[in-house]
Amino acid sequence: MHHAAERFLAEFGGISVDISGPGISSAREPFELEPSLAYGEEDRFSEWGEEVGASLFPIGELDQGRFFLAIDEKSVIYLVADWLAHFGEMPAALDNLVLGVAPEIVIE
After folding, report:
1. What is the mean pLDDT of residues 31-49?
2. Which distant-in-sequence residues (6+ apart) come within 8 Å of 20 by Cβ?
3. Of 39, 75, 81, the residue nearest 54 (C-alpha)
4. Residue pair 33/69 in contact by the 8 Å Cβ criterion
5. What is the Cα–Cα distance from 36 to 51, expressed in whole angstroms?
6. What is the reported pTM?
């Protein structure tokens, strides 16, 4: 676990946000900030990290397990699936998640 992940989880770890409905540019989806929800997916985070040249550490899941969330060393929050997108750097990234701002696709 890198320093940005430690700081983020110390402040936000364990939080569950139950939201839904329209957002700014995408639907607002529930998310839970609990790294253990990504247990068994280590290869996925490692491979995407190699693709973007960053260390991606799991921080939880989005849309009740449909997607995973990760953070890199620069405090950028990523949506991790069969593709990769980011919500931006903290603290704006958390705002984007709550407000329903569509993540920017990094790799499809």
Report:
1. 94
2. 27, 28, 29, 30
3. 75
4. yes
5. 23
6. 0.94
